[in-house]
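Running this now, will post back.
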Amino acid sequence: MEMRRILTTLVCAAAFTAAAADRRAPGFSLVDSKAQEHDLADYRGKVVLLTFIQTTCPHCAAFADILQQAQQKYGDKIAVLAVVNHPDDPGKVNTFLSSHGITYPILFDSGQMAYSYVLSQALNYPQLFVIDAGGIIRAEYEYSPVTREIFEGNGLGPAIKPFLSK
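Update: finished.
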């Protein structure tokens, strides 16, 4: 009976995620911690893993390392873009980058870009949007007990693999 309840929860979570996906990814142009501008349109042709993080979030720290591993594993097939909002600042971000050995950019947002993705006033961390090579959001994940494997385990690869072969 317990297994049935778990399976039902997973199916419902997947249905919720699928229902929220398959919309055009809102465009943006944001500056990273090195003062370089990143426009989403520049990443067409690649799967983009767009994540919203906070440098003080322990789940975000674990996910930052997983994203770095994915970047190394999949190379030019993907682009990883992390986005932070206030109270994160360049000093906190540079410390975070150094302590995790991150090579992908961390972008600064004032909240407007984040809102266009999460479609809510509340921004819980971390969140991941998988954007296909054509600019369509194909999957959305917010950290929870159901999605924990994606953010802290081995679930990211299987979650993005279907979009890499297209």
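Residues 21-164 form a domain with the Glutaredoxin fold (CATH 3.40.30.10). More later if anyone needs it.
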